[in-house]
């Protein structure tokens, strides 16, 4: 990159001097810049022209000089600074050479115009940001209410029911009456309590394994309905006794008789 | 010469500065009262306003200006504040409505009233087989789903309950007579009980009308 | 059975109730705006005002009423608020809460989001020429100045960022269209998304559309 003419004209060209000073200032404070585009924008200001008329070629040269300088000063530059330098070097060579009609891709002018656009856009955004921050801000120039009244939320319950709820409720009440005759059916139902009551004294007598079915009360074995309820109740009662630690249950095989004995 | 003079800061010589016009002072007081987190004393106002301001007059003007408005300038002890007009306090409450299913006791009581109206409390209890708490009746009255009917012309002249227009409205009924009878309830599958042959299946209110089945559509 | 009774059920028919007179609505809106710290949306107002109120007219009247006063009625996006007049900020020095100083990166990022919204992170980075750190976006999100917009319908469906109502409120903007210099920037083409030459999407560059939101539609 030694072919880059250093931006140090002999004459007292004020613009060139300013550019050089700017470039030097850049080097001093590389860390303070927000990337290569930021540096380029700063450099372009030295051209003191409308950003649309900027000389991208001159800008590229300044940037390359900046990178070169940083290197000689052994200043650590982030990779994107070097990527930008490489790209600008490429752009510079394309701008200096006559366009090759054979070449594919965008023209050097297009690339330069885009870079100018990017710089102009970044500058515009910075100006916009400054204008935004200069506005009257809430909590600094404008203020909201100091005392706020909290809205108290009043919870109000609204009860609902559907017609189906209503009818089901009525049906429930009315069918309760209809069920009343079934109360007599309880004669055919051995309850768990009854079975338990019956087994408690008996279990004390059985020291050996006894078939559970022998515990069914008399009169509950012939009728299938009665036998079923008695069996269920007796079995449930025996489980209860096992749980209480008074008895043990065993069954040698699936569907084999269930046997019960007192726990010793 | 420089020795004798005091600090050169502004406000060193009050007479040099004129107080802002009263209308401007009023604006200032208004802004301060609005933005400050608590009531502001006159002393504080004097301290915050430009030199020479007379907050008392400004406050008085401001108070008059806000008379009858949605917010008022009010005196709180020795201080002043802007507060919501007392009659608009209701705007500061937000009602959150929560819908809940009626309890089983309430819906059953309601159903009995709907099917048997006019009905006395004793009758409701008889039909339900359990007592009806005062709260249940009160709730239904409060919901405007039942109301008092005529007194029964029996000893003790007990009050009766009937359902209201609001009830019919809620359940989408023209009249309470439109409620389906037991056999229809059963036909619609709302009775999960097995029918008992020979018992009062042919119920009182069954009138065999059509078109009631569509009540179940929902 | 007295099926059909007179309907005295209140609140049954909302149309029975007339909205309060406009002057009264204005008082109500005034009270609500005064009482609330943040902007109140028209929707919220409708929800809190009595049935049938038209807050828009009341708001417009109120806005005029407070013109030139110490506090003003301002529009913030779809919401409204009362704020002290900007020229009186100097009185409020003791109310100033020390705001966190935003970094230059955060300020620029905020401006880019405001002017280019909805904008993706990649687009912000392309405009600034540097990566946007997570912390910057997080800080702006946390301040409730930006929020997520719709995902861009491009490969990867990247999220976009837009500014919030709190942003508008903070900077005293009625809408994002009122951003300073927006139309000039747009006229200068500086809000266009201009692809890098040679990246192959030049044909997308056709739209001379208006409105920030359209700028990035592809």
Task: Give a written overview of the molecule.
The complex is a heterotrimer, with one copy of chain A (264 residues) and two copies of chain B (218 residues). Chain A is mostly helical. Chain A is built from eight helices and four strands. In chain A, a hairpin with a 6-residue loop joins strand 3 (247-251) and strand 4. The termini of chain A are far apart. Among the domains of chain B are: 22-87, Arc Repressor Mutant, subunit A; 104-188, Winged helix-like DNA-binding domain superfamily/Winged helix DNA-binding domain (Arc Repressor Mutant, subunit A, Orthogonal Bundle), CATH 1.10.10. Chain B has helices at residues 22-35, 42-48, 55-65, 104-116, 121-128, 134-142, 165-171, 182-187; strands at 40-41, 71-76, 79-84, 93-101, 119-120, 146-148, 160-163. In chain B, helix 1 packs across helix 3 (55-65) and helix 4 (104-116) packs across helix 6. Residues 1-14 and 193-218 of chain B have low confidence and may be disordered. Chains in contact: A-B, A-C, B-C. At the A-B interface, strand 1 and helix 6 of A face helix 1, strand 3, strand 4, helix 4 and helix 8 of B. Strand 1 (152-160) of chain A pairs parallel with strand 4 of chain B, so a sheet runs across the interface.
List its salient traits.
heterotrimer, A: 264 residues, mainly alpha, Arc Repressor Mutant, subunit A, 3-stranded antiparallel sheet, 8 helices, elongated, B: 218 residues, rod-shaped, disordered N terminus
What does the secondary structure layout of this molecule look like, with pairings?
The complex is a heterotrimer, with one copy of chain A (264 residues) and two copies of chain B (218 residues).
Chain A (H helix, E strand, L loop, with lengths): L13 H15 L6 H11 L10 H17 L6 H18 L11 H26 L18 E9 L2 H17 L12 H12 L6 E2 L12 H21 L2 E5 L6 E5 L2
Antiparallel strand pairs in A: 2-4, 3-4
Helix pairs in contact in A: 1-3, 2-3, 2-5, 3-4, 4-5, 7-8
Chain B lengths: L21 H14 L4 E2 H7 L6 H11 L5 E6 L2 E6 L8 E9 L2 H13 L2 E2 H8 L5 H9 L3 E3 L11 E4 L1 H7 L10 H6 L31
């Amino acid at each position: 990159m030694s072919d880059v003419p250093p931006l140090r004209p002999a004459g007292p060209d004020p613009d060139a001097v300013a550019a050089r000073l700017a470039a030097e200032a850049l080097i001093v404070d590389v860390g303070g810049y927000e990337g290569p585009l930021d540096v380029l924008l700063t450099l372009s200001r030295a051209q003191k022209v409308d950003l649309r008329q900027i000389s991208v070629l001159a800008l590229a040269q300044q940037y390359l000089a900046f990178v070169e300088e940083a290197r000689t000063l052994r200043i650590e530059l982030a990779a994107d600074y070097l990527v930008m330098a490489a790209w600008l070097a490429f752009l510079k060579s394309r701008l200096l050479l006559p366009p090759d009609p054979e070449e594919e891709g965008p023209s050097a002018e297009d690339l330069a115009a885009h870079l100018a656009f990017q710089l102009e856009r970044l500058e515009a955004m910075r100006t916009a940001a400054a204008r935004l921050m200069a506005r009257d801000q809430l909590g600094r120039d404008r203020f909201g209410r100091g005392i706020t009244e909290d809205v108290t939320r009043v919870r109000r319950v609204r009860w609902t029911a559907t017609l189906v709820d209503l009818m089901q409720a009525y049906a429930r009440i009315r069918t309760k009456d209809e069920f009343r005759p079934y109360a007599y059916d309880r004669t055919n139902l051995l309850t768990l309590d009854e079975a338990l009551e019956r087994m408690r004294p008996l279990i004390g007598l059985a020291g050996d394994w006894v078939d559970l079915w022998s515990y069914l009360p008399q009169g509950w074995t012939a009728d299938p309905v009665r036998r079923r309820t008695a069996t269920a109740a007796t079995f449930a009662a025996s489980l209860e006794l096992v749980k209480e630690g008074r008895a043990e249950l065993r069954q040698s095989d699936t569907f084999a008789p269930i046997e019960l004995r007192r726990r010793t | 010469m420089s020795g004798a003079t005091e600090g050169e800061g502004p406000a060193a010589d009050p007479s040099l500065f004129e107080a802002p016009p009263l209308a401007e002072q009023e604006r200032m007081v208004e802004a301060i009262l609005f933005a400050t987190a608590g009531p502001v004393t006159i002393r504080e106002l004097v301290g915050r306003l430009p030199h020479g301001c007379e907050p008392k007059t400004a406050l008085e003007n401001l108070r008059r200006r806000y008379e009858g408005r949605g917010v008022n300038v009010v005196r709180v002890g020795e201080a002043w504040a802007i507060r919501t007009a007392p009659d608009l306090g209701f705007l500061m409450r937000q009602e959150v409505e929560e819908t809940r299913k009626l309890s089983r006791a309430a819906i059953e009581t309601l159903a009995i009233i709907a099917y048997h109206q006019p009905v006395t409390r004793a009758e409701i209890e008889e039909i339900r087989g359990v007592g009806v708490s005062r709260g249940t009746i009160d709730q239904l009255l409060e919901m405007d789903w039942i109301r008092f009917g005529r007194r029964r012309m029996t000893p003790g002249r007990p009050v009766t309950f009937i359902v209201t227009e609001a009830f019919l409205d809620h359940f989408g009924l023209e009249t309470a007579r439109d409620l389906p009878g037991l056999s229809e309830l059963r036909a619609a599958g709302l009775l999960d009980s097995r029918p008992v042959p020979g018992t009062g299946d042919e119920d009182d209110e069954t009138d065999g009308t059509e078109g009631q089945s569509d009540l179940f559509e929902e």
